[in-house]
Amino acid sequence: MGLLVVGTPLSWEESKKYFDHVRENGIEQFIHMYENGLKKTNDILLWGDEIEYIVLSVDEDHKIARVSLRQEDILEALEEHEKSGFAVDASSLISGMHNSVPIKPEELRELFHEQVNENKTPDLKKPFRAEYVTPTFHPEYGRYMVESTPGAPYGSTLEDLLNVEANMLMRRIIIQQHLAKNEFPVTLTNFPLLGAKDFTDPPTTANGPISRSFFLPDEVINSHVRFPTLTANIRTRRRRKVAMNVPIYVDKNTPQPFHDNTIPWDRDLFPEDVNAREGAALDNHIYMDSMGFGMGCCCLQLTFQTTGVDEARKLYDQLTPIAPLMMALSAATPVFRGFLAEQDCRWNVIAGAVDDRTEEELKTVPKSRYDSVDCYIANDPRNLSEYSDVPLVMNDRCYKQLRDAGIDEKLARHVAHIFFRDPLVIFSDSIHQDNTKSNGFFENLNSTNWQSIRFKPPPPQSNIGWRVEFRSLEVQLTDFENAAYAVFVVLLSRAILSFKLNFYMPISLVDENMKRAHARDAIHRHKFWFRRNPFPSSADTATSSSRDQFAEYTLDELFNGSDENGSFPGFVRIVRSYLHSCNPKASVLYRLERYIQLISQRASGECMTAATWIRRFFMNHPEYKHDSVVTQKMTYDLVKKVLDLESGGFDSDLLGKTNA
Ligand code: ADP
Ligand code: MG
Ligand code: MG
Ligand code: MG
Ligand code: MG
Ligand code: MG
Fold first, then answer.
1. Which of 31, 36, 365, 557 is most buried, taking the most CB atoms under 10 A from its CB?
2. Is 212 exposed, middle or buried (0-12, 13-18, 19+ CB in 10 A)?
3. pLDDT digit string, tens, across residues 392-413
4. Using a 6 Å cutoff on CB, does residue 47 contact ligand 1?
5. Best of 303, 454, 456 to mutate for ligand 1, by most ligand atoms within 8 A of CB?
6. pLDDT digits (tens, 9 = 90+) for 262-274
7. One of this protein's Pfam families, by short name (predicted)?
8. Is 149 in the pocket of ligand 1 (CB under 6 A)?
9. ipTM here
């Protein structure tokens, strides 16, 4: 979540004086990065993932799981230990791997082939010292969250992809080693009872002045001053609390209409308490009123370095239509604030959770600063301007500044769009920055425009290249699944570049797909727009973007291909032909195939998304009263089941059948 600067944030009123200062200098910083970045044309393909975890505290006596608010202690312990190198017991890695394909001890060396010093074969019976793969751990918005990344980005080889699952597992084990006996890192996107009664350890009360939420105490917010400031400034800027209303899943005993009695309708503690009574809270919906409901969700993100700026711009564009589809396929969020929802994904809740638009701006500014991409940016003759067909708000002065510096129209529009928003937090000690050496002002805005795909220019004075971040994936329950989604998107992005695939379609249709991707059981109940012919063809640059070029497909058709409905090749087939074009060793193919099969079976419905699986778990629970309510016992039992899967348990309904 952005860079953590040490210092004092300005009050919202004071910070307004510096908005234009931040913008003007941020653009100057971008121009410097752009110009220096033009020299970068030989970078290698590198990539890395980010996984976010919820730390749960489990009370076995009372069978209750709660979020543990010990983030600071945990990260401090991790940081302390990081200096001396983490020690991981290899046997715990082996037993934790997806057990439908047992990993033999000798295979572990191959898993870590890059990092293991060949001369010193690790003795697998002893703790496996992993200094050379020291991952990093970061704070996140929720004070019950931790984020981890691999110690160094992965390279471009297929063999590198075989390290991913073990690396993820190792990171989970390392976090686990720094927790109390009753604490566990879980990769649920959302804690089902977040904002319900009695959901934190230690206990808290929702009455804090920062978020002013009915449900979330300020103690769930990361205590670094950036996070409470972000929270308060969004509320101040929009002049009311944030308000998310997710339709409730209506079961046979759900009262109709559903009027939520867990909302303290009559509270009069803060001026914003009237918001709910005055229409912010809707009947038949799960109402949420605080940034933490969104930013407290966990996701899986992937960052790709490209060979240069042109390739980064192309990859950004081609991944834009993929983002909603992969989100639907990774759906894992069927419950909010203790109620089953009529949707399966977190995205629109986060969009609402950081939506800083005033009521007037809702009429003129189409989207939250957290939303899907608004315009394509590639210098590609196939990037027709009519594909960027949704209204684009821009800061006109920034646009002019960019154009005057020679930045082309497409990139200038993107950056001026990002710079339309106000800087949300300005630190008093970083008001003066050397624009040739810093990217602080640029990142102030770039990192608070949370788009489905993020364009990351090369930071000054570093050897990092042009990068593109894929941000729509919901985090999966197990490392096997997280590795599968990561590996699949990596392979698809390689196929995109290698085969020069053309996924261009109007942004308005991408937005429509993003809406549909949220739907409950979207795999069976919705179709998605896509380009009929994703292969490069001479007709591509024809000026017509006629709607006939796009059709609606099920996710099964899009991933597994379809010979009917105008025939679509399918991303799984595309990925497989890319793999074969690399002439991989049989053993590599065999291992990667497990991941591809999971993706394929999720799309076909042969196995379930986490959202469907969790929903079904709750709906079949003996304590469930068919009234949409998720209880503490139901949540505890889910957590136990998830912990079992995370340590190698198997469930073919969720994880599919592998024939590899
Ligand atoms: P942010 O939170 O800003 O998105 P993080 O630092 O948390 O960024 O994660 C960045 C990810 O990018 C990590 O997985 C890291 O391994 C990876 N990464 C780091 N350097 C590069 C690079 N040069 N190219 C591609 N990926 C990189
Ligand atoms: Mg994060
Ligand atoms: Mg991060
Ligand atoms: Mg970050
Ligand atoms: Mg990220
Ligand atoms: Mg936008």
1. 557
2. buried
3. 999 999 999 999 999 999 999 9
4. yes
5. 303
6. 999 999 999 999 9
7. GCS
8. yes
9. 0.96
